[in-house]
Amino acid sequence: MAPKPLTLISATPSPFARMNRIALKLKDIPFELQNEIPWESQTQTPKYNPLEKLPILVFPANDPRPPVYESAHIQTYIVEKYADKGPKLLPGDLDSDLLAKQIVVLGVGCMDAMVLNRWEARREKEQQSQKWMDRQSRKIDGALRAFNDYVEAAGKEGREYLVGKELSIADIAVVCTVGFIDFGEVKPGWREQYPKLAQYFDRVDGREEFKETRPVMFDLTEKVV
């Protein structure tokens, strides 16, 4: 009897959940995608995550495991709990594994900065803080520089991927983050500024699991407060 699928609660454009979706697909772990907007009145998010944030990994009704939340932790959960299902998505030695997880944290931090910047821009003009928006923009610039450094370092060592010889959660995080920058036109001209990062992004993002999970914008029907 086939195991019942997991449920990943997400929002359609989410780069956070995209990381988890790619990992689940690569490991061939059955799951269903449940889309919702966590700040709307009918949201089910608080039922599963006290922080009221997506994504959330939920197990079937007969599975006693509690929901898993926060995208970086979900990614760690997937690669460690399902380590017996290939691909590993981690290099396999402690220092490299820790570096891969650090790159995931960097990606998630950049995603957070993009979201914070976007919501600030949606406030009434007289309520917006330009200093706050500038700070988020610096975080995004810093992440792009760091991503490019990782790509260049890998190239110098003759590696296709950022950490180790195979695709890992580090590559997934960087491509999902840069993909959201591209999707939202957050940093026009980044491709010209970082051509090696652009080449790496296009190559990895062209994989089937990445193409299947590219973001799609949702319609906001309620005001965020």
From TrEMBL:
Signal peptide: none
Domain of life, source organism: Eukaryota
Domain annotation GST N-terminal: ranges: 4-86
PROSITE patterns: GST_CTER, GST_NTER
Residues of the GST C-terminal domain: 93-225
Coiled coil: none
Gene3D superfamilies per the UniProt record, alphabetical: 1.20.1050.10, Glutaredoxin (3.40.30.10)
Record-linked SUPFAM superfamilies: GST C-terminal domain-like, Thioredoxin-like
Similarity comment: family membership: Belongs to the GST superfamily.
Protein name: Glutathione S-transferase
Source species: Curvularia kusanoi
